[in-house]
Each structure stands twice: as C-alpha cells, then as structure tokens.
Amino acid sequence: MNFSRFISAISKARMPSPIREATALVASAPPSLISLGGGMPNPGTFPFESIQIKAKDGNQFTLQGKDLSKALQYCDSSGIPELRAWLMSLHKKFHSPPLLQEDNLGICVTSGSQDGLLKAFEMLLSPGDNVIIEDQVYSGTLAILKPLPVNLLGVEVDGKGMKPDSLLKVLSKWDPEDALDPNSDIPKVLYTIPNGGNPTGATATEERKRKIYEIAQRYDLVIIEDDPYFFLQYQKTTAPSYQFLDVDGRVIRTDSMSKILSSGLRLGWISGAKPFMERIVLHQQASVMHCSTLSQVLAVKLLNMWQMEGFERHLNSIQTFYESQRDHAISSATRWLTGLAEWNVPKGGMFLWIRVPRVADTYEMIMRKALEKEVVIIPGGCFSVSNDVPSSYCRISYSTSTPEVLEEGIRRLSDVIREEIG
Ligand SMILES: Cc1ncc(COP(=O)(O)O)c(C=O)c1O
Predict the structure, then answer these.
(1) Which of 113, 115, 145 is the best mutation target for the ligand 1 pocket, counting ligand atoms within 8 Å of the beta carbon and taking the most?
(2) What domain count does the chain have?
(3) Alpha carbon of 167 to ligand 1 centroid (Å)
(4) Quick check: is 397 in a domain?
C-alpha cells in the first residue's frame, strides 16, 4: 500500500520532538545510563506518598517508591511499554492481525478512543476531501468532522451494519482507477462503528465486513474501525474485526477502556500499520505528550494481576450485565411501544435505536414534550450527517438505569408519542 497517498500535509510536516525521543530512550534504557537530558521534574518533590488500589474482586496493590515515581512521571508518547505489550497480546488473541505477522502493527495509547479518532482524521484528511461515514453516526465523530473543510458522504446502516449497496452507490461517482490520480477527489477514508453502533445499536455481520473490506480494497480506501463496544458484544461467537481481515494495512482501529475499566481513566488505544502509527505518535508528542501515566500504570497493574483469564472473566460479567439491560429495554419497549415504534434488537453496546414512523421529526417531541414528562432521550437528528434533515428516530441508552426506571422512562416516551400523533 502507498501509505504516503493517505497522509495529509499537516501530518507529513510533523517532526519528532528530540526531547520526547529522549524520554522514550530513557524509559527503555539500562540503569547504567546517565540522563542529563529531558526536562523531567524531580519526583521527590511530588506530594504523593503512596496510592492504594483495591478491586471489587479483592485484588489489591499499593503503588509506592520507584513504581509510584514512574507512575507520576512523563512517559513515552506511545504509552508505557508494559501496557503496550499487554495490548499487543490482546490484539493477537482477539484479532490475529495479519499485520502482526509482518511486524507491521503499531499501537499508541491515547486519552480515550475519541483522542485516537481525532488524530486519525487529522492524519488522513485534507481540505476538500470526501469522507465516507455511516449515517446515522456517533455525535463525537460528527463533532470532529463537521467543523473541518471536508465533505461528508453518508452511507446507510441497518441492523447488520454498513450497507455495501449504499456504499457502492456513494462511490459510483468515481472509477476505482481514480485512486491512482493524485488530483482526483475520490474518497480515501471510510469510517465505521462495527459493533453495538452508537446510535444505531447495529453490529456488522462477517459477510458485510468482507464485502465492505473488498470494496475498500477496490477503491483504495482506509477504513477507520471505531470499536469501543467490541468487548460489549453479547454473543459468544462474534464476527471477525476489520483488523483481522486486513492484509493490506488499510485498517486503523480505535479501541477503548471506557466501557470495560472506566471512562474516567481516559484510556484508549489506536492501532494500525506502522507508517500510520508513527504519524499518530508525532501528533501525540505535539498535543497531550502522552496519555496519563498514572492511568496506564493502574490499568496494567490490574490487568497483569488478572492475567488474560481474569480479564475475560471480567468481560463476561460486563457482557452479561449489558445483555440483561438490553433484555429489559426490549421487554419494556415491547410492552409500551408496540404499534407506536420499531426497533432492532442490539447484539452489543448500550443503545436502542427507535424509529417512530408516524413522527417525521422527533426533535421537538423529544426536546420539549419528553422533557416536560421528565424523560431524557436523544433525538435522532443529533446523529445525522447532514444538518436540518428530519429524523423519525430517537436513541435510548440502557446502560445506567435500573429495569424499573428504564421501563418508566419508556412508558413516558409512549405517552409522549401518543400525544404527538393524536
Ligand atoms: C462510537 C464511539 N466512539 C468513540 C467514543 C469515545 O469513547 P472514549 O473516548 O471514552 O474511549 C464513544 C463514546 O461513547 C463512542 O460511542
């Protein structure tokens, strides 16, 4: 793959910071190395003596002395080596990336997957570019893309994920050969949320993913696989990821610890072919320098204590929890919304995407009438790629409410819809 074709002028112009490079060198150097470089504060001046962590399952540890100093210090921009090594083994286990066999898989720890997404788009997009994106889509992605001078080309999504026929329709304006012309405006980037989609709840099937990947190969597209709900899939057998299918290096994955360890840790990671990841790390050097060392140390200490079996046990408990929440949401929706609304049953994630066929645009109904009845739901229009397009959808999140509260919220929504349609 010609990686250079995809990299924006801004990203190409990024140069390594000599100080950040020295920090990475010191982190992995033997104790005999004398470092008079860098600009690290002396950790002896920090006011913290120790940090004690106790997990719900009884695992506990105390950070003190050298370990604590390290956790409170600057670190390598791509993340602490222990966490990166752990994430590599995670990818090996769950994605078997072909890129790993070629020693061409890079990983950079980010401040949540949102940070990784923003950096991926910055690396890949230039003014005037056409970008392919699921419609409806995560509002955080729209918050990144809408202010940019790029054109967003929406592709339809149904319960099985992005629709290949809709993608081909969008691409029909171009010939695959246009990808060889540096002056062509053929899209270079495709963004998708493959599992437990936000807002659609959709999980892409293997058949869909293979078709989309094949189209991406034909049109030479980079796929951004934004997958924070990967570990929130309820089924035991799941479709392989795009990274698993990626023999070319055209898939960039963003992952998140937000839904599995804690969203407040602000831990995520981005992975993909090394020529891309090197650019992301340079952006990281220039922006936040690195993701919180303390968050990384806390996470990796716990993960190393759990080992892969403990981590998988934890994942199972999360999946069971969200699956049961999904079941409560579906039974409440069936009870109160049958005949008023339609929905697909999510196979992962935390969202129920509801269509109210007799309401052309849910915005007013949700933002005024539902609020009057004291229920907060998000109108579908907030996830539309184009502004001012009416949406008959709304999104319910079933992550934090008890079954009783969830049911009462859905009952109130049914009242609101009934009043609206008269
Ligand atoms: C689809 C999607 N991508 C990315 C994110 C960002 O997650 P975080 O930055 O917490 O990892 C979210 C958060 O809800 C999301 O739903």
Answers:
(1) 113
(2) 1
(3) 23
(4) yes
